[in-house]
Design a protein that fits this description.
mainly alpha; Preprotein translocase SecY subunit; 2 domains; two-stranded antiparallel ribbon; two-stranded antiparallel sheet; globular
């Protein structure tokens, strides 16, 4: 039987949205911020030759630059002020999560609650600035080495260009980080995730148009295009189903006496997601595998011979690339899950609050049981991620699908959309509950 909240959620419609003035403000604020982000992704950094840069990026499309450009919504290939996008902030956040497992100070901050979270966020911002400056300077040096048929990608290379580029790209990342925090605080959804999702979605019309154009010219058969569209819908449905899947571990709380009253034992559950690691494993695995290809392309004229052989073995569609890609996804699934979920800490918290898993002794036995359940879930989750991510690679390599029908892109878009929709439904539910409370008060006064 559906709960009261689920029944009420089923009744939510556009009429309820039109009555929720606060939610409308949040939605319009979010849309306004995202428009500012898209406009900024077309503002180029100074000192760049756009034609030479476009030619260079066409040659580098299969490397790590292609992946970064997809996540940056095309801003990286255009080398705009938002070329780094929000990726340095995500990297800094992951580094801080890793540090909490090895640093006693950060681990203590994590347990302090809101105050500790603010300290960790502040150091994450400092880390974002440092990473952005390093990456911005590295990109400036790389741009100076880029050559096309018409000349270099940089009009006036030198130390001044490197400094200006590093500062400009860092400023763009910090501004995006601030925009994301504003969306989270005053808008709807997770701001950082929405910024990445909008960048990916912005490239979809051009990708679909390119696919249809190939069908018109005969490069792709109409039957294959229809099959491709059906497959996209099927993969999205699978992602939605799996991302919502949970293993609910029953938690029982014993009866307790408060004063003269005896409160009955409550039963709750501990939700464990099937895919705990999210989109981190495919991003990390892709970045590591595409790095040798990018380096080899940069040093094609004077690089070592072994680097060229490695890049050839790791090209898209090769058996070695597929095998290493799957191995990387599986590894990072287990690695990141071990970071974000600590069975021992969870078991200790349950024990402190008087909770226990039926049939399992509190303490170490509970931690072992949670670790066993989480390991089995991660095995299934890693297999799901591998299948979702490897299928597009086969299509790209074997059938020359002209757009990045990547598992990473689909996972981000679908997951963020589900997250944002859930938050909107939460706001609408709260608004309807407030309306019911006001009506009940008015009826009480009428009597």
């Amino acid at each position: 039987m559906a709960s009261a909240s689920e029944q009420l959620a089923a009744q939510i419609n556009f009429g309820a949205f039109s009555k929720a003035a606060d939610l409308q403000k949040r939605v319009w604020f979010t849309l306004g911020v995202l428009i500012v982000y898209r406009l900024g992704s077309y503002v180029p950094i100074p000192g760049i030759d756009p034609e030479a840069l476009a030619e260079v990026f066409r040659q580098q499309a299969g490397g790590i630059f292609g992946l970064f450009d997809v996540l940056a919504g095309g801003a990286f290939s255009r080398m705009t002020i938002f070329a780094l996008n929000i990726m340095p902030y995500i990297s800094a956040s992951i580094i801080m999560q890793l540090m909490t497992t090895v640093s006693p100070t950060l681990e203590a901050w994590k347990k302090e609650g809101e105050a500790g979270r603010k300290k960790i966020n502040q150091y994450t911002r400092y880390g974002t600035v440092i990473l952005s400056l390093l990456q911005g300077y590295g990109i400036a040096v790389g741009l100076e080495g880029m050559r096309a048929a018409g000349g270099g990608a940089v009009i006036d290379p030198g130390f001044a260009f490197r400094v200006i580029t590093a500062i400009t790209l860092t400023g763009g990342t910090i501004f995006l980080m601030w925009l994301g925090e504003q969306i989270t605080a005053r808008g709807v959804g997770n701001g950082i995730s929405l910024i990445i999702m909008v960048g990916i979605v912005a490239a979809l019309p051009q990708a679909i148009g390119g696919t249809l154009e190939l069908g018109r010219t005969g490069a792709l058969s109409p039957i294959f295009i229809v099959f491709l569209m059906v497959m996209v819908v099927a993969v999205v449905a699978v992602i939605v189903y799996v991302e919502r899947a949970q293993r609910r571990v029953i938690v029982q709380y014993p009866k307790r006496q408060v004063g003269m009253k005896m409160f009955g034992g409550q039963s709750s559950h501990l939700p464990l997601k099937l895919n705990t690691s999210g989109v981190i494993p495919p991003i990390f695995a892709s970045s590591i595998l595409l790095l040798p290809i990018t380096i080899a392309n940069f040093s094609a004229s004077g690089g070592p011979e072994w680097l060229g052989r490695v890049s050839a073995l790791l090209a898209h569609g090769t058996p070695l690339y597929m095998a290493l890609y799957i191995a990387g996804i599986v590894f990072f699934c287990f690695f990141y899950t071990a970071i974000v979920f600590n069975p021992t800490e969870t078991a200790d918290n349950l024990k402190k609050n008087g909770g226990f898993v039926p049939g399992i002794r509190p303490g170490k036995n509970t931690a072992d049981f949670l670790d066993y359940v989480l390991t089995r879930l991660t095995v299934v989750g890693s297999a799901y991620l591998s299948a979702v991510c490897i299928l597009p690679e086969i299509l790209i390599s074997q059938y020359a699908v002209p757009f990045y029908f990547g598992g990473t892109s689909l996972l981000i878009v679908v997951s963020v959309t589900m997250d944002t929709t859930a938050q909107i439904q939460g706001h609408l539910l709260a608004h309807q509950y407030e309306g019911l409370i006001k009506k009940s008060k008015l009826k009480g006064r009428g009597r």
